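Think of the structure tokens as a kind of shorthand, similar to the way a musician reads notation: each symbol stands for something richer, in this case the local conformation of the backbone. In the example below we present two proteins back to back. Begin with the first one, reading the sequence and then the tokens, and try to describe in your own words what changes along the chain.
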Amino acid sequence: MIQEDIKLHGGNIALPARVQYAENIRRRGEDFRAGDMLYERGRRLSAFDLALIATAGVAEVVVYRRARALVIATGDELISPGKPLRPGQIYESNRLATVLQLRQLSVMADDGGTVADDGDALRDLLEHARDYDFVITSGGASVGDHDLVKQVLSEIGEINFWKVKIKPGKPIAFGRIGELTHFFALPGNPVSSLVTFKLFVEPAIMAWHHAAPVFLELRATAANGFRRITGRTEFLRAQLYTENGVLVARALSGQGSHMMGTLRETNGFIRVDADSTGFDRGESVVVTPLTTGLF
């Protein structure tokens, strides 16, 4: 019986007319018991998890150390926000987005700044980055005359793969520098950089931390149609919402890899498989919510 349901009369208490047997009793061991496994290996501990661990009387737990990462943007055309643009220049945003996403994944991310399209400067910077667990660049991984990242990486390290059949994000490279450092060269187009981070860098960070992989895919109903030519698996920026208890996905207009405006409404991707020509309104589609750090 909870105290709020009784009445005090001097030194006596009056109970409600009906009292349920064994009601409001907290039994020993009903939550967890000695010897119970509270958490399996591979879980990222949240504030809720730590509260449970403390409730169990555990003062310390063994964890893996946080990864260290260096983030670099490459390109002569890049300029920091807040400065006036000159012809041929664009504002650099990939570095900020990558650093913040890494920190959401508990990575100790350092901002390495912007490097011009100069092979010697890039080579020197990467040579001095061998103490990092990850080096992540943006730009310079395609096939242009000034795309030097892949060339420099092949000289001082090894390339495990270059280019993937996805859209956006085809010109991504991955490799190693020495025995310690994992290297990702993300595309320069801002949306391509964000997509490849989600698809490649985030799972790699989770694996490095010995975490259980989490890549949530759900079924949703298409709010509008989308048509395209087959060839690459495509990830469409989408707005996910529920309507009458049903998950709905609306493919946003403006899917160019340079177009950031759609990010104001983007909270997920619609996956269109390589052999698919698209979908019609009302069809079932596969979506991935844009959540991070769920391991």
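Once you have a description of the first chain, move to the second and do the same.
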Amino acid sequence: MSQLKAFIKSFTPYQKWYLGIVLVITVLFVLFLPDYILDDTSNRVAVAASVICVLSNPICELMISKQSKLNFVVDVFFVETSELLLCYFNGWYVTAIIICVFWIPVSILSYIRWTKHQDAEREELTVVKTLTPKQDIAVIAAIFAFAFLAGTLISRLPGAADSYVDALSSGFGITNGVLLLARYREQWYAWLMTLIMDAALYIRGGAYIMLITVAAMMVNTCYGYWKWYRYNKTHADAV
């Protein structure tokens, strides 16, 4: 119980306001604009998944910006489960497959790895690092190669929708997951591009409520990058 209280107290006023605003906007959206949650709101499971995803994603991303390994717990039990359902109902099969074979296993592995790399001064923090320019170029090339191959293959499946955008989103998402697992600051760049691609998919699928979480996470992406950048500058010898 004492650890839980300490964890809650670790949130700054900005972080508390951030989560509070997301919660209020989501509730207002559900109450006054229910028809804009999905194109087809008759499926209550899909609607519930959308709302859970909207609320859990900002929490998860905020905990990443805090360099907390607990973000992976939130990710597996709330984010990935709700997004998997949403992808299934919208025909975004690339993302659905990636969630099952990549995101869930990587989140579990990341939790274990982050536990082994705690900051020497503050145990609640995980040590983070940065890529070299050559590594940046190699990563970008790999993302677009994956998107072209996956988009071409998945577009042939019955019911598949927006396959190349879906594949590009997954490519950036996978990169984000790998860099997050390895504790690299550049995961924030990959995540920003993932959010942009996801926003296009949500608009195409009529899942306008999901734009709340996209906007919230874009704000937190800037905040998280700044925090990780500052940490790298003040802990240049950390690995």
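Compare your description with these statements about the second chain. The chain has one domain: 8-234.
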